Amino acid sequence: MSAAVPAASIAAHVLLPSGKRATADVGAGTDVSLHIDAAAADAVSAFSIPRPVAEPLRFGSWVGDVSCGSSVNCFNVMLCAHGAGTHTECVGHALAARPTLFREVAPPTGLCTALLVSVAPVPLVDVGTYPPGKADDAVVSLSALTAAVDAALAAESALVGATTTDDRYNVLKGASLLLRTLPNSDAKRTGERPITLVAAAARPCARKRDHASFLCTAPHQRLIHRIAAKYSGTNPPYMTPGAMSWLVERGVAHFVLDLPSVDREVRNGRQAASYLVVACTPTSCVAPPLTSSRAVPCPPVQDDGGHLLAHRAFWQLPPKADDASVKAPYSQRTITELAFFPPELADGLYLISHGVAPIAMDAAPSRPVVFKLTAAA
Ligand SMILES: [Zn+2]
């Protein structure tokens, strides 16, 4: 009997902008996608988009289903990538001319350097105003984003190497920024519906009414950020346009995040949803157990008015009224939404394969895979 042969070891060697050399085991990556699964009742969903449908192809009496007597399974799938799982979108998502991936916009064919950061969304009221938003929305602000990037780069100083902040940011040029929102748990993948407090400090709330994700029915209630795989009608956190513009200034080529969208949720206004109202005592703002919550009907929720300001900031589009002026060549930057970064992945530098499905649309399902970068020996 011959000795067991070990599998090939496959390593990538990377020369970073700092001049430092890094390496990654590209034979063993971590899938950071949420899979599209028409058969899974607990699959991720968002924007009230119907679940994907897979049905056997039919030619007359022939049915493409082995269980119906065919020799093969041959199924049609109807899906809208924006609400069914991880997907990558291009500038065509926002333009009537609909430039598409693989036609006008070329997703990367190789590995890109990437920085994974974790950020806790904060109440919009704490960071400024946003025309279509409510003060109590939760957002990823510019200051929170830059603080997280700075912390991640400081932790990777052996690879980033530079002494000045601007030099350290060089690693972001042409790279992918991966954003994990906090709190983070497997609930984003499995569809469970826990709730977790986000705001660090208790503060009185003057608005005694409930909103989509920020519920203020008692003086000392705080921001509640729901983490769940079923996002429809939950008004998830979103990016401020200022944060997206900063990514562009730093040369970030691809943005990957675990939220359904970089912009505020758009709702059709018809679908009912339930929100958890949690009462805090005046002296304590500790999260009460879930059993003390009650579900109430969803109030009408403003949508973002079609502004799509965060998307448009990243693609550097003019105001919507001037879209006719936007011609090829189009921005080659991509946004990947509804990714999932498992808690065991540490913030820091990675290589990423974006794994965009070769479908010429404004958006296509994708399967990003990341590989940890370490200093080369
Ligand atoms: Zn989308």
If you had to describe this structure to a student in words, what would you say it looks like?
Helices cover 11% and strands 23% of the residues. β1 and β2 form a beta hairpin. α1 packs across α5. The protein starts with 10 loop residues before the first strand and ends with a strand. About 18% of the residues have low confidence. The structure holds zinc ion (ZN). Zinc ion binds next to β8.
Concise overview:
The chain is α+β, with helices and mostly antiparallel strands and 377 residues long. It is built from six helices and 23 strands. Helix content is 11%, strand content 23%.
Note the run of SSEs as H and E.
EEEEEEEEEEEHHHEHEEEHEEEHEEEEE
Helix and strand content put the structural class at alpha+beta
Low-confidence stretches: 194-226, 268-303
Helical proportion, percent range: 10-25%
Distance between the termini: 36 Å
The tally of helices reads 6
Q: Give the ligands present.
A: zinc ion
Please state roughly what percent of the residues sit in beta strands, choosing from under 5%, 5-15%, 15-25%, 25-35%, 35-45% or over 45%: 15-25%
